[in-house]
Amino acid sequence: MTTLYRPSAETVAAVTRADRPVCAFLHDLDGLRRQARALTAPLPPGTAFFYAVKANSDPRVLRALAPVVAGFEVASAGEVLRVREAAGPDIRIVMGGPARTEEDMRVVLAHGVERLHVESLHALHLANAAAARAGAVLPILLRVNLAGPVPGATLTMGGAATQFGIEEAAIPDAIAAARDCRALRLEGFHFHTVSNNRDAAGHAALCAAELALARSLAREHGVDLRIVNLGGGWGVDYADPGWRFDAAAFAAALAPHLAPDGPAVQFECGRIVAAYHAAYLCEVLDLKRTHGRAFALLRGGTHHFRLPSSWAHDHPFRILPREGWPHPWARPALTDARVTLAGELCTPKDVLARDVAVARIRVGDVVCFEMAGAYGWDISHHDFLRHAHPERLFLDRGEVIA
């Protein structure tokens, strides 16, 4: 069953502050758990589904997901500490990402991260030195940047000249270097090639090809292949909130490429888990026309919710009407108009949706941006101009939790 969190005007009024214009993120943790279960249920035996913390690292999100997912994928020492604080000492953590530091390695070793995804020869040696000093053996995967070409998606991290991973042609040298790193144990390969691929069959074909490459590399270079991490990339369509990546079809297409004797396969998905079950709420502060175009000015903007600006799309929304009007002058309103939804920042780039059709919008109404749970607050420049932060509200079984 596909679900999408669409709070009512009554819910918004009940949970947000009444003494200031509405500006809030509202999360539905029940829906979040249902989404995670729907994604993990079709996966075949021998696979594990990790949540990519970068999508939304709020502790309440992590605690809600901890019983549902296999563990968490992190990209920084700070995310390791966030997961440990929120979900406890026993939850599984794997770590990837470029630009590693000695502090990252220290935290990985001190906080029980089970595997590090290594993206360069320098990072390989850095990890080996840190593990040797700690008297530990650190399991690693080598991240492969495919030779390409790769299928189209919103973002591409592999199959092209990017800062991610070790280019495929250099993987044999990396395997040889890893063999000389006595404090590391090479257990396989990591692929996170594309992000937001909406083609389930095409994504399954890419993952199958990556799995075959991992097996070939292991056979040719004598690697004991225990783990292949196929990354994330399961897509979300912001232009069509009702559309869903077909996780069941993806799992069915990939299943014939798995073997009972391994290697184990891992996924690390974020956006598809967190996106659907949160809304970003902004009260309309003003309406105006300039040079023939209409603008609604909101309490909020890209400093809270940068995703629409970073992806250059019109984010899906609804207008929640509010009938009270406390002023003696006429209430500004537009009907059957095309309106640009702009924020409160002093820049023309602070736009969440551009020239979108609305039946009616008034000062004092609330714009409800849907699908706001991933890569919103976490990637935004919160303190530009020092505007007040939004309320961040989390509903669990209908009640706001701390």
Automatic annotation (TrEMBL):
Any GO BP annotation: lysine biosynthetic process via diaminopimelate
Gene3D superfamilies: Alanine racemase, Lyase, Ornithine Decarboxylase, Chain A, domain 1
UniProt-annotated catalytic positions: 346 (proton donor)
Cofactors, names only: pyridoxal 5'-phosphate
GO molecular function: diaminopimelate decarboxylase activity
Segments forming domain Orn/DAP/Arg decarboxylase 2 N-terminal: 32-275
Modified residues (N6-(pyridoxal phosphate)lysine): 54
Domain Orn/DAP/Arg decarboxylase 2 C-terminal residue range list: 279-373
Top-level taxon of the source organism: Bacteria
Alphabetic keyword roster: Pyridoxal phosphate
InterPro entries: Ala_racemase/Decarboxylase_C, De-COase2_C, De-COase2_N, Orn/DAP/Arg_de-COase, Orn_de-COase, PLP-binding_barrel
Family: Belongs to the Orn/Lys/Arg decarboxylase class-II family.
UniProt-recorded name of the protein: Decarboxylase
